[in-house]
Design goal:
The complex is a heterodimer of chains A (402) and B (437). By secondary structure, chain A is mainly α. Chain A is 70% helix and 1% strand. Chain A has 21 helices and two strands. The radius of gyration of chain A is 27 Å and the shape is flat. The N terminus of chain A is likely disordered. Chain B is an alpha/beta fold. Chain B is 49% helix and 14% strand. Chain B is built from 18 helices and twelve strands. In chain B, helix 2 links the parallel strand 1 and strand 2. Chain B is globular and about 70 Å long. Classes of the chains: A mainly alpha (402), B alpha/beta (437). Chain B: Keywords: Signal, Transport. Chain B: InterPro entries: Bact_solute-bd_prot1 (IPR050490), SBP (IPR006059).
């Protein structure tokens, strides 16, 4: 799909008055940044022209007269520079009076932020966060340095980093085995879930009564409790009485042992997880599809693009921010997934479904090796946090590119 | 200016954190001080009993016995705290002790009791019974009595729900193929192979997982005993690489190879037997009512003694005992001890056994349950197994070690691994568990 077609499509749909507004509102320092994000339409120079082209391509949401509210909140000075008073005095260089006003306003905002009253207002949320998240996390870190006696804390023994050193040496199974299983599950649900939900969303966006019913049917599993539906799927996967085997048998296909097989147990849990979770990500993609510009697709079709070319070069690029969000959310929930493993396979057979989350539970709450379990939990926390930060950074780049 | 602002922020944050911590402390303290049970103003002592008799006749029979006890002892109130399964029970007991809110008494396996005793959170029987050989003790079956002692030689436990392994079968299915119930494990392998096929797999078991060994693992241990071995030495050392254990696991692999064994979860043997897709189910006598419910009159359910091995008859004592938690007040200890003795009296044991499928812990109960025994002749054989049934030594690492055995079963039966190699892995895991204590 060509850039030419993209520009043509957008240019036809964007109202001129919206594209032309806001020029004077951009201070010099902000201009280059905005140009990188999509540009200030009408700005002189190459960067501005290129930015304008991209801004038109993405529609009025970016690079238009409507400032990014996130930017406004993060940079109050930038936000205040977009007032009509500034425009009247000087679009390029505010007067000392304006600068003084801006400084006073910034100070006022800071005072509000630093006021004890602010702390008072946030105290309930902070208290809940401190008691249920920060406190337990700090306590987990503390416990991880001990051979912890859950029954009688006074009999606990400080062992330094020994719990962390034994992460690789444990055999029920080792941390690395658990990490590999987590990665396997995450890859299956992220790649499979994203592809499947995108495909379903493309199918369902066509509308109609049947499609509406299908939307409800696809979303319904997401609203069901994992603990109940995973038990139902245990029976679906039952090698002797299960529906899955009955279907395969009817089709004269080989029947795996599903949850009883070390090779098939993880794919079975992935299939269940996709069934349960895909409704949510389909809704996200449907939301994304609802706001993308239909004119771009029309233009592509006019230019002779096939359905696949239209999807690959026009539709999906516009869905990149949604895709990135889906990938992040699915990755985090997959790394934290526990209930389906607890209900369907209990980490077996032969540790085949012992993910890091399950391993933490097993060590801390079955074997009551609490110190080691705490060390595992901390490492899992760091892995998820690192993964999330990495993906956030990647997402920002993708969003900027889109 | 900057340092002043940040100091003010720090002060505010510290105050908020301190306030939050204080509020949390009061909240936790408030929760902890309630529900301890004890003696009320009118002299009624309340004791709490954490147990797993959550369903079927087990629940109703325990409630019936407890109600009768309260009626006979109006100054004692027994609060039953029911948990859905043993894993939850252990987690709840541990959490309750950890939170300083332990029940008065609870069901425990001997290896749990060993962990509790090591952490000084339970009491030896002598501390509340006034004797290390209470009157009823001599009347218990030998296998039952042996299990009540921990390695320090002290009596820590009191028997509660005891059972042994039995074999449930579908006699009609065997008869249709001209077969009868085998008396040795070698014969069992032959019969199992012959009865399998055409949608029938002779026996299905759940070996459990690393975090929870199941009935299949108990069966493997029973086979080990039947071949003359023992999964653990008296000091709790695992003996998984012994030839008897290798042979026992090889026996299961052979059954699988001949199409006579399937692994599953959620009582697969019971389900298959009831659906006429299985001929046998190895389970405990406590499963008697559940098996009957599952079969639902579709055929006459058979209940048999386990076949014998080269070393003769072997069985494993299953079920839990009772222990007294150290936080109980003196009044609660006295009341709970009265209740514990009441439950093991012959009349109550007869009611308990007939109502639940568990076995009476004393032979003195048999005359009171003659009608039940004549209707269920298998009880006689099962009760006699209480004399020779083995118990695993009571150490904290036993369950984790048995979990390693469960993994070995899966590795061999499902993945076709070599039994000796799989058991060597299990041995390493068990030894590590023992070393960690």
């Amino acid at each position: 799909m060509s850039q030419e077609a993209t520009t043509t499509g957008s240019g036809a749909s964007t109202p001129p008055e919206r594209r032309g507004h806001g020029r004077a509102a951009v201070p010099p320092g902000k201009a280059s940044a905005q140009a990188r994000r999509g540009g200030a339409p009408g700005e002189d120079g190459a960067a501005g022209a290129a930015g304008a082209e991209r801004a038109e391509a993405t529609g009025p949401a970016e690079g238009s007269a409507h400032p990014d509210p996130a930017d406004a909140s993060e940079h109050p000075d930038a936000a205040s520079s977009r007032t009509s008073a500034d425009v009247a005095v000087s679009p390029d260089r505010p007067s000392p009076w304006v600068r003084g006003k801006r400084v006073r306003r910034v100070r006022r905002v800071r005072r509000v932020r630093e006021s004890p009253m602010g702390w008072l207002y946030t105290a309930p949320a902070l208290a809940v966060f401190a008691v249920f998240t920060i406190g337990p996390t700090a306590y987990t870190l503390y416990i991880s340095f001990f051979h912890w006696n859950t029954l009688n804390a006074a009999m606990s023994r400080y062992i330094g980093l020994a719990n962390y050193r034994s992460l690789l040496g444990h055999s029920t199974p080792s941390f690395l085995t658990g990490a590999w299983h987590s990665l396997y599950f995450t890859a299956g649900t992220v790649i499979g879930g994203t592809a499947l939900s995108l495909a379903l969303a493309l199918l369902l966006q066509r509308g109609g009564r049947l499609m509406s019913a299908s939307r409800v049917a696809i979303f319904a599993p997401y609203a069901t409790p994992v603990v109940a539906t995973s038990l139902a799927w245990v029976w679906i996967f039952n090698p002797q009485f299960g529906l899955a085997d009955a279907v395969l048998k009817a089709a004269h296909l080989p029947q795996p042992l599903w949850l009883q097989s070390a090779s098939w147990a993880m794919p079975s849990v992935i299939v269940y997880s996709l069934w349960h979770e895909v409704g949510f990500t389909v809704v996200l993609f449907l939301g994304g599809l609802a706001v993308i510009s239909p004119e771009l697709g029309e233009a592509a079709r006019v230019d002779g693009a096939t359905a696949w070319q239209e999807f690959w070069h026009v539709t999906w690029p516009q869905l990149r921010p949604v895709t990135a969000f889906v990938v992040i959310i699915t990755s985090i929930t997959s790394l934290q997934a526990f209930t389906q493993f607890y209900e369907m396979s209990q980490g077996g057979p032969v540790y085949a479904t012992t993910t890091l989350s399950y391993l933490v539970y097993q060590e801390a709450f079955v074997f009551f090796d609490t110190g080691y379990g705490a060390a595992l939990a901390l490492v899992l926390f760091v892995v998820i946090a690192g993964f999330t930060l990495l993906q956030r950074r990647t997402t920002s780049r993708i969003a900027a590119a889109a | 200016m900057r340092s002043h602002a940040s100091r003010r922020r720090r002060t505010t944050t510290t105050l908020l954190a301190a306030g939050t911590a204080l509020a949390a402390t009061f909240t936790v303290a408030g929760c902890g001080s309630s529900g301890q049970g004890g003696t009320s103003a009118d002299g009624t002592t309340t004791i709490t009993f954490m147990e797993t008799m959550a369903a079927s006749t087990q629940k109703t029979t325990l409630e019936q016995l407890t109600s009768a006890f309260e009626k006979a002892n109006p100054k004692i109130k027994v609060k039953l705290e029911v948990e859905p399964d043993y894993a939850t029970l252990y987690a709840k007991e541990t959490a309750a002790v950890s939170a300083g809110n332990a029940p008065t008494i609870g069901q425990v396996y001997p290896d749990w009791a060993a962990t509790f005793a090591k952490s000084q959170v339970i009491l030896p029987v002598s501390s509340f019974a006034g004797s290390s050989t209470p009157a009823q003790l001599s009347g218990f079956y030998a296998g039952v009595k042996n299990e009540l002692y921990l390695p320090d030689g002290k009596l820590w436990l009191w028997p509660f729900n005891k059972s042994v392994e039995v074999m449930f079968d579908n006699p009609a299915l065997l008869k249709a193929k001209g077969l009868s119930y085998p008396t040795t494990w070698d014969q069992f392998a032959t019969v199992a192979q012959k009865v399998s096929g055409g949608g029938v797999t002779a026996i299905s078991v759940d070996p459990g997982t690393a975090s929870g060994p199941g009935a299949g693992t108990t069966w493997l241990e029973t086979l080990d005993y039947a071949y003359g071995g023992a999964p653990f030495a008296k000091d709790g050392s695992p003996q998984f690489t012994a030839p008897t254990m290798v042979k026992a696991l090889g026996y299961l692999a052979g059954l699988k190879k001949s199409g006579a064994l399937a692994l599953g979860t959620d009582y697969p043997g019971e389900t298959a037997l009831a659906a006429k897709k299985g001929a046998f189910d190895v389970s405990t006598s406590a499963g008697y009512y559940y098996e009957g419910q599952a079969v639902g009159g579709k055929f006459a359910l058979g209940t048999q003694d386990l076949p014998a091995g080269p070393a003769g008859k072997a069985n494993i004592l299953t079920g839990t005992d009772l222990t007294m938690f150290a936080s109980a007040s003196k009044a609660q200890q006295n009341a709970a001890w009265k209740y514990m003795q009441y439950l093991t009296e012959p009349a109550q044991q007869a009611t308990w056994a007939a109502g639940t499928g568990y076995l009476p812990v004393t032979a003195k109960a048999l005359p009171d349950m003659s009608a039940y025994v004549s209707k269920n002749p298998w009880v006689t054989g099962a009760v006699s197994a209480l004399q020779y049934a083995k118990s695993e030594p009571p150490y904290g690492w036993i369950e984790k070690s048995e979990g390693a055995l469960a993994v070995a079963i899966q590795d061999v039966v499902d993945k076709g691994a070599d039994p000796a190699s799989a058991l060597a892995d299990a041995q390493r895991t068990a030894q590590a568990a023992k070393a960690a204590g």
